[in-house]
Amino acid sequence: MVGLPKRQRVAAYAVIIREGKILLSRLSPSITSEELWTLPGGGLDHGEDPRDAVIREIHEETGLHAVVGETARVYSAHLPGVWRDGRRVDAHALRIVYDGWVPVDAPEPRVVEVGGSTVEAAWKPVEEVLDQTVPVVPMVLEAVADHRPFRHQRLGAYALIRRADEVLLVRISDLGFHTGSWTLPGGGVDHGESPRTAVVREVREEAGVEARVAELVAVHDDHFSGTAPSGRYEDFHSVALVFAADVDPDAEPRLAEHGGTSAEVAWVPLAQIESGRVPVLDLVREALRAR
User: Fold this and answer.
1) How far apart are CA 72 and CA 271, in angstroms?
2) Which of 43, 47, 37 is nearest to 8 (CA)?
3) CA 183 – CA 25 distance, rounded (Å)
4) Hey, what long-range contacts does 31-36 have (CB within 8 A, 24 or more apart)?
5) Three-class SS of residue 27?
6) What is the DSSP letter of 33?
7) What gap in Å lies between CA 92 and CA 190, rounded to an integer?
8) Which one of 76, 176, 193, 237 has the largest count of C-beta atoms within 10 Å of its C-beta?
9) List of residues 6+ apart from 194 with CB closer than 8 A
């Protein structure tokens, strides 16, 4: 419309998806009289970095402390003739949309900001957003359509430690993928770290014992999607190197690392693995077959 005041606004938002749900903020009645949900985020203050802005806005609108990725997608919407602050304007909205995540043990979302543009925060099923059971602004549908899980490839080193008819295993905590299953002691190889050194370090951290590492016995890979300990939804590819190892005969394993992805460590009878009584990852079965 010719002659309307021009207003351009730059805002930053985040797509935060976890376990099939997306974090959304409900617009206040001052914005719309109907139920309408949007991504958490908002306008940049003058001189504010977009990443700082979206983290600030997420906390104000949901009460959660989020982390956002290094890259973003930009959406542009020209909205001539819309109402802003009680008058009709020729609006141009630039939306910078990041991928974001919150810790897996984060509390339920709640609005912190008083008198803002949102009145509620909640996790909504992605399917209900896509089929429009949950009414959302068009930006949400655009952002969800473009969203892809973060691709993460991880090199891990693990120890196959046997004692008579038992094998040393650790049970995965609520923070890890495959919660409740048992796997070999081990974990990610740090940048520049020797895989054998990583095995010794990880066995010490997870089982509290010193391992002597021998030959490589198996290479296993796994590809799946899920929520990482950080809360980030990932397209995860794990490549695992399994080494034969042993410990002192009188060594008593104990959980040495707390608050991580391991919840328990124990000598597990092979018969319980073979019977399925103890649920184990494919990594364990492949390592046992190779040895």
Assistant:
1) 50
2) 43
3) 39
4) 31/117, 34/135, 35/135, 36/135, 36/136, 36/137
5) strand
6) S
7) 46
8) 176
9) none
pTM over 0.90: no
* Cα separation, 240 vs 261, whole angstroms: 16
Q: What is the CA radius of gyration of the chain?
A: 25
Helices within 63-174 (DSSP H only): 126-130, 138-146
DSSP letter for 190, please.
P
User: What distances in angstroms separate CA 263 from CA 25, 181, 182, 231, one per listed residue?
Assistant: 35, 10, 10, 18
Tell me the one-letter amino acid at 244: A
Q: Is 263:176 a contact under the CB 8 Å cutoff?
A: no
Q: To which residue do tokens 């397209």 refer?
A: 235
Determine the 3-state secondary structure of 40 from DSSP: coil
The confidence score (pLDDT) of residue 141 equals 97
208-252 per-position pLDDT tens digit: 999 999 999 999 999 999 888 888 999 999 999 999 999 998 888
Indicate if the pLDDT at residue 186 is higher than 90.
yes
The conformational region for residue 252 under phi > 0 = left, psi -120 to 50 = alpha, else beta, is beta
Spatial separation of the C-alpha atoms in residues 246 and 259, rounded to whole Å: 26
Q: Which two tokens stand for residue 264?
A: 């328990």
pLDDT tens per residue, range 8-31? 999 999 999 998 999 999 999 988
Enumerate helices (H) and strands (E) in the chain, giving the number of each.
6, 14
CB-count exposure of residue 263 (10 Å: 0-12, 13-18, 19+) = middle
Phi, psi of 26 (to 5 degrees): -90, 130
Look at residues 124, 145, 91 and name the one whose alpha carbon lies nearest to residue 22.
Answer: 124
Q: Do the beta carbons of residue 148 and residue 102 sit within 8 Å?
A: no
